[in-house]
Amino acid sequence: MKYTYYGQSCFLLETESQKLLFDPFITHNPLAKAIDIKAIEADYILVSHGHGDHVADLVELAKQTGATVIAMPEVIDWAQKQGIEKVHPMNFGKFTFDWGTVRMVPATHSAGLPDGSYGGNPAGFVLEVDGKQIYFAGDTGLAIEMKVLADIYNLDYAILPIGGNYTMDVDDALVATKYFDCDKVIGVHYNTFPVIEIDTNIALDKFKRENKTLLLPKIGETITL
Q: Metallo-beta-lactamase domain: which residues (predicted)?
C-alpha cells in the first residue's frame, strides 16, 4: 500500500485495487502549490468533516475523478447540491465495500460547512484493506473514546493530527497511541498555518524516546506502508 501526502490532512492511499483520497485541500494551501490536482486520480474520496481546509477541492476533484464521496449525510447533501452524484453517506457505523471495510468513528471537533450550514458530526475513519488496519483520526482532540479501538482492532498505522490548537498536538498524539495501542504514526494537520507550526525535529525525537515511529513525509512524497 502506498501513502502520498498532499499537505494539511489531505493524502492518497493506494491499495491493491483502489485509490482513496482523504480531505482534499490543496489549491488553497500555499505549501502544496507544487501539486497539480489535475493529475490526481481517485476511486473514493473520504471526508472527515466539512471545514474548508478539508473540502476546498472536494467538488472539483470528485467531478474530475468520478470518485464516490464517503462522508456524513450533511456533507453529502452539500456536495450533491453542487453536482456531485456518486456518494455514500455514513455516520458512526461500519460498511464493507468490495475492496475493504470502512468504519466511521467520532472525532472531538466542530464541523460546519463553508457556506455556514450545519455539517453534521466530525469524524475519523478506520480502514481494513489489503490485510492492514489503518486509523485516520480526522481533526480531533485527545479523547478517552479512542481506547475502544484497541478492543476492536490491531492497528498497523494511525494517521493523526499533531499541530495542536485545533487538534491534538504531538504530546497528545503520543498519549492517543497508548489508548489504541499503535506504535506507527503518520503526522498530518501541522505547519500549514502559523498557529499549527511545530518543530518537526522535536516531534520526531519525542516519538523516538517512546520507542514509537513518527513518519512525516514531505508534501508530494510517497511512502510505502
A: 7-189
